[in-house]
Write a structure and sequence with these properties.
3 domains, four-stranded antiparallel β-sheet, alpha+beta
Length: 457
């Protein structure tokens, strides 16, 4: 059976779509040899059921599935360069070679039932011949995970539905439903199976590395970094991680991220927080850390939204944007919020009063977060078992101080947008007090002074 290959190009020219087809090297499925004696495609009516690239990003390898009355046969073919000697009448006294490309047969896999669906890897991180799999589902509801180079079976299973304990007997399926389609996740860690009854079945796949090496921290970190840069979903990796490697994975990811330039960190910071949060949520002891990171993510998002409202009065006369000026003044360590205002240009922080009123709920959230952190301070102590706390994150605390300064300025423009506090002393000005306490905390987050802790009580 011939497999014909073509190169198709599409070009738009003068509002017309021009499609060009060019023939490429083709091949015939192999039906000779000791291991293929039952698949004589010439004598038995046969047809191709599936054909796919072994790797989405690699156009040099194909897996082809053929079927006849004897069963199914999967064959792997690779496009290779080959030097062909030129005839001596044409080459002259010196032997010459012509380099061309042709398809070469690699391996095969046989099964007595028809292939229903075929899934191959969409992504390859390691350049290993055994780093990607081919998964085939057959008409007998069996699923086989095969090595891509040798088509030897790595793992196999059968589709079956486990009835729910409280499900009525008349709703329990009497027969196993047939497989309709299978597909592999983008990172290749899970396999999704759909049956004819519209049930979804999820199977974990072995790590797409050398089968003798279990999924480790270095490989998982590489995958997470790839997701961080490309924006791919890392959920399927979370499904196969071991609980014991979560802390080491978080530490290694943080170490790698902190080595990047400031511009790179700022660009990917929100996605980085999302990845860390999802990792901590998997740990039995990481829920507090996940909550703190979620608060930081919300704080960072609000900060970005607030700073986007700032516009310089004269762009040509300023080297820094208003947001940069605010960050610089906050970094100086001022404890008095009114002194901070004296170092800022008031015109640069002016926002329409109607806009400020619409931000009141977010402003209230910022104030509530600041008070909540100060309330937790007396009960919080640095510990090796708590590698991350929002109270110990200087960056997060400085962002919070920046927001309090903006709230102070905007409150002068429209008092109705200010946060609401329940006070025992009606003359107490809460914002300057909270800003002063947070500023003292930033100066020594590892060991806050006793006066600050007593005041937080």
């Amino acid at each position: 059976m011939p497999i014909q290959c073509y190169k198709v190009s599409v070009v738009k020219s003068d509002d017309k779509c021009i499609m060009t087809s060019q023939s490429l090297p083709s091949f015939f499925l192999l039906d000779e040899g000791k291991d293929l004696e039952h698949f004589n495609f010439k004598s038995v009516r046969s047809y191709v059921t599936h054909i796919k690239w072994i790797v989405r990003e690699d156009a040099d390898s194909l897996v082809v599935s053929a079927y006849n009355s004897n069963g199914s046969c999967l064959q792997v073919w690779e496009l290779r360069e080959k030097a062909i000697p030129v005839h001596e009448l044409l080459s002259g006294p010196e032997q010459k070679y012509l380099t061309t490309v042709l398809w070469q047969y690699q391996s095969n896999f046989q099964h007595s039932y028809k292939v229903v669906s075929l899934a191959t890897s969409k992504l390859t991180i390691l350049n290993n011949v055994s780093s990607n799999y081919i998964v085939a589902a057959f008409a007998d509801n069996s699923i086989h995970c095969l090595y891509r180079d040798s088509l030897k079976t790595l793992a196999s299973t059968n589709l079956h539905i486990t009835p729910i304990n409280d499900e009525p007997l008349h709703k329990v399926a009497r027969t196993v439903p047939d497989i309709l389609h299978i597909d592999m996740s983008w990172l290749g860690n899970v396999l999704l199976v759909i049956d004819i009854n519209s049930y979804l079945h999820l199977f974990k796949l072995p790590p797409q590395i050398d089968n003798s090496i279990p999924l480790g921290v270095p490989y998982a970190t590489t995958i997470l970094e790839y997701c961080l840069i490309t924006g791919l979903d890392w959920l399927d990796l979370l499904l196969v991680l071991r609980t014991g490697m979560l802390d080491a994975l978080c530490d290694r990811l943080s170490e790698s991220f902190n080595k990047q330039s400031t511009a790179v960190q700022e660009f990917f910071f929100e996605r980085y927080l999302c990845i860390r949060t999802s990792l901590y949520r998997l740990s039995a002891q990481g829920h507090n850390k996940a909550n703190d990171l979620t608060l930081f993510l919300m704080l960072h998002s609000i900060s970005t939204a607030f700073k986007s409202l700032l516009r310089p009065s004269e762009m040509s006369s300023h080297d820094k944007s208003p947001a940069d000026s605010l960050t610089g003044v906050i970094a100086e360590g001022q404890c008095d919020i009114d002194n901070v205002l004296m170092h800022l240009e008031a015109k640069e922080f002016t926002v329409e009063p109607s806009t400020l009123q619409s931000l009141q709920q977010l402003i209230q959230w910022i104030a509530d977060l600041a008070l909540n952190l100060l309330i937790k301070l007396p009960d919080s102590r640095p510990s090796a078992t708590k590698p991350y706390e929002l109270l110990r994150d200087v960056k997060a605390l400085n962002v919070l101080r920046e927001m309090l300064v903006l709230i102070r300025i905007w409150g002068l423009l429209r008092p109705a947008c200010l946060p609401v506090f329940t006070k025992s002393d009606a003359t107490l000005d809460v914002l300057p007090l909270v800003f002063r306490l947070l500023s003292r905390l930033v100066q020594n987050v590892s060991e806050p002074d006793d006066t600050l802790i007593a005041y937080s009580n």
